[in-house]
Amino acid sequence: MTGEKIRVLIAKPGLDGHDRGAKVICRSLRDAGYEVIYTGLRRTPDEIVSAAIQEDADVLGLSILSGAHNVLFPKIMNLLKEKGVDDITVIVGGIIPDKDIHFLEKIGISKIFLPGSSTKEIVEWIKENVRKDPNE
Amino acid sequence: MRMNNSSKMNLKQSFNHWKKEKYDKALEKAFAKKNEYTTISGKKIKELYTPLDLDGFDYLKQLGFPGDYPYTRGIHPTMYRGRLWTMRQFSGFGTAEDTNKRYKYLLSHGQTGLSVAFHLPTLMGVDSDHPLAHGEIGKCGVAVDSLADMEILFEGIPLDKISTSMTINAPAAVLWAMYIAVAEKQGVSPKVISGTIQNDILKEYIAQKTFIFPPKPSMKLIVDTFEYGSKDVPKWNTISISGYHIREAGSTAVQELAFTLRDGIEYVEWALERGLDIQEFVPRLSFFFNAHNDFFEEIAKFRAARKIWAEVMKERFGANNQRVEWLRFHTQTSGVSLMAQQPYNNVVRVAIQALAAVLGGSQSIHTNSLDETYALPSEEAVTIALRTQQIIAHESGVINCIDPLGGSYFVEKLTSEMDKDAKEYIRKIDDMGGMVKAIELGFPQKEIADSAYLYQKAVEKIEKIIVGVNAFEMEQEPIPILKINETVTKQQLARLREVKKTRNNAQVREKLHNLKKAASDKQNLMPYILICVKTYATLGEIMDSLREVYGEYQEPTTY
Q1: Angle at Cα B210 formed by Cα B207 and Cα B214, nearest 5°?
Q2: Do A68 and B136 touch (CB under 8 A)?
Q3: Residues B459, B471: contact at Cβ < 8 Å?
Q4: Chain A: closest CA distance from residue B131 (Å)
Q5: What is the ipTM, given to two decimal places?
Q6: Closest Cα partner for B191 from B159, B239, B164?
Q7: Between 3.40.50.280, 3.90.1570.10, 2.30.30.60, 3.30.479.10, what CATH number should domain A7-129 receive?
Q8: Measuring CA to CA, which residue among B68, B57, B50, B78 is closest to residue B408?
Q9: Residue-wise pLDDT tens digits, A47-75
């Protein structure tokens, strides 16, 4: 690992205003020592991808509860690909029905945290999976 | 409860003896003891309450009789003996046709009022063809873009006989105008229709976040609806001042109570500033609370709410009429308390919460469905939710006696502590210069985020147990859930195109222009909005005209 803090951008696509979870995650990641940026509500895929690139994020965390994930997430993943970004790990939290999980993994989302996931699990997962030195 | 000194001394001695010799000793040997017993809001609860906790308690001052000031025991003298609460399931999905079918199903199964859930684009005041609507059409509620959708939504439902609640906030005036227009088309006068628009923008900034305009023009628009309603639609509740979403966002019970009532005070102050008559508009204010897991804390909250509001109206605003002092409220069981794990357990959670809502004296109740952590409810799930209310009403016997928990040492103590703690918050917000100021300072938002964070940590440390989540876990099979038909988007966009093609577009432009001008001139906008919707101007077009005048609110993105 490099000495710099891992940078996490927490983004809220979709029209819903349910930000309780996103805010609790932001605080928990910050308390765990990560650099956390929160986009605020109702960001379009374009805005989210631009912010992730500008902020030099290692992790992009998407929080959604509106049910629009199958439309919005492919857009975000395509935009990342179009812009040649391959070093941002994309993770998701929110209400994702079981039957959609396979599809979301297939388009390149690394991890989906379902309702009931603890903040500790998320902190640990990032520690284990992000910015690992390949020679380690 | 007044005790003379010697009986108080006696009781105190007996209590201390019991505590030291019996309780503490037994507890030492107890197997399952905890260090501290707290409510879900983190409030410490003692092991036992006795008359000592109610020393100085004045029955008439603190409780009164049902229907008497300060209404702690209920606003009606007969409560559920005279009339049951309204069973009102919040519902909406897909197109207006889909939801109309669901309404007819619910009404045929004994539901007694309607409650409309709009999809997110409608809540945000954009049409289904707006880029932000992509992927959201008909998902979290029913898609309504124009009067054409609203006509279908209420097709075959007599609006002079059924009351309708609409959960709509920033664009509430527009959806209300559409409802009035549908009623007129059915030949029903606005004077006789009844129902509620949520129309509570303050809790949007605080918690639910479906705001559009900045606070000041939003408040102006709400006072417009108060003014218009009290003259032209006199049986309509022009606001439902809501604690529900504040609680869902993570507040404690006291914060829910205090912020909601302080929002109520703010609306009354703004309306008085406009010169409205307190006797005319205040009786049309209604409230909306959450029924969460902690049974007694919730009951105490509902009882304290009535008392505080009555006192505020009398002491702060000089009301002397019971219709002005009454706090009438709807209750919904807590969505956030439902768990995705072992979802059938949610039926039990909902039953306990709904029982608290009944024992707290709610005027109408929505019970959540067991599958709502996954999607909007299926027909089977919503039927169980409705049946839960019917079982409480007709089988449990709890409606036989008014306010059956009144006089419980514990419930009365909890009610008076709730009362005291909420008033302290209200004072604090008064000192900040009111709720709009407090919101600009981020005060309620910060308080709620702090409570949400503390609760999450308590769950993760297993100080709070959630059955099936951090205890008693097991593998489970997925349950069947409602899927929104993929054709909904296509159908909705086709209807919107059709409306825009067949209406008189020159007339629409003219009426929208008039609306914009009236907004700049600070006139009451309701008559202008009503004219616009009747020309089939869309919700998005109407809101865009107002966005040009009022601008849009950008919330600070703190966490």
Answers
A1: 95
A2: yes
A3: no
A4: 9
A5: 0.89
A6: B159
A7: 3.40.50.280
A8: B50
A9: 999 999 999 999 999 999 888 899 999 99
Instruction: List domains and CATH numbers for chain B.
Output: 59-460 (3.20.20.240)
Inter-chain contacts counted by CB atoms under 8 A, chains A and B: 95
* pLDDT of B263: 98
Q: What is the tens place of the pLDDT at every residue in B249-303?
A: 999 999 999 999 999 999 999 999 999 999 999 999 999 999 999 999 999 999 9
Q: Which residues contact B118 (CB under 8 A, 6 or more apart)?
A: B92, B141, B142, B143, B144, B166, B167, B168, B175
Q: Residue A50: which H helix or E strand, with range?
A: helix A45-54
What element of type H or E holds B29?
helix B24-29
Q: Does A14 touch chain B (CB under 8 A)?
A: yes
- The pLDDT assigned to B343 comes to 96
Cβ density class B528-545: b for 16+ within 10 Å, e for less: bbbbbbbbbbbbbbbbbb
Cβ contact (<8 Å) for B209 and A41? yes
| Residue indicated by tokens 């309607």 | B114
Q: Where are the domains of chain A?
A: 7-129
Interface-testing mutation among A10, A23, A119, with chain B (most B C-beta atoms within 10 A)? A23
Mean pLDDT of the region B417-439: 98
pLDDT lower than 70: segments of chain A: 1-3, 132-136
Helical packing angle, B409-432 and B443-460, nearest 10°: 140
Q: Does A33 touch chain B (CB under 8 A)?
A: no
Asked if B206 contacts B445 with a C-beta cutoff of 8 angstroms, the reply is: yes
CB contact under 8 A, A116 and B341: yes
A8, A9, A20, best to mutate vs chain B, most B CBs in 10 Å: A20
Q: Is B277 helix (H, G, I), strand (E, B) or coil?
A: coil
Does B250 lie at the interface with A, CB-CB under 8 angstroms?
A: yes
B489: confidence class by pLDDT, cuts 50, 70, 90: very high
Instruction: Write out the two tokens for B468.
Output: 């099936």
Amino acid at B154: F
- Say if residue B3's pLDDT is above 90: no
* Cβ within 8 Å of residue B492, ≥6 positions away: B95, B128, B137, B138, B143, B145
Q: What is the pTM of this model?
A: 0.94
Q: Cβ B375–A39 below 8 Å, yes or no?
A: no
| Single-letter code of the amino acid located at B52 | L
Q: Any chain B CB within 8 A of the CB of A23? A: yes
Cross-chain residue pair B140–A17, CB shorter than 8 Å: no
Nearest-by-Cβ selection for A116 from B339, B449, B557: B339
Q: Is A49 exposed, middle or buried, given 0-12, 13-18 or 19+ CB atoms closer than 10 A?
A: buried
Residue B460 Cα, gap to closest chain A Cα (Å) = 7
The per-residue DSSP string of B118-150 comes to BPHHHHTT--TTSGGGTTTTTTSSB---SHHHH
Q: Which pLDDT does position A1 carry in this prediction?
A: 47
Interface residue B431 vs chain A (CB under 8 A): no
What is the rounded distance in angstroms from the CA atom of residue B421 to the CA atom of residue B424?
5
Reading phi first (left if > 0) and then psi (alpha if -120 to 50, else beta), residue B199 is in: left
Express each pLDDT in B432-472 by its tens digit: 999 999 999 999 999 999 999 999 999 999 999 999 999 99
B364-366 sheet: strands from edge to edge:
B86-87, B364-366, B329-333, B285-291, B239-242
B315: pLDDT strictly greater than 90: yes
With CA atoms as reference, report the closest residue to B203 among B282, B262, B116: B262
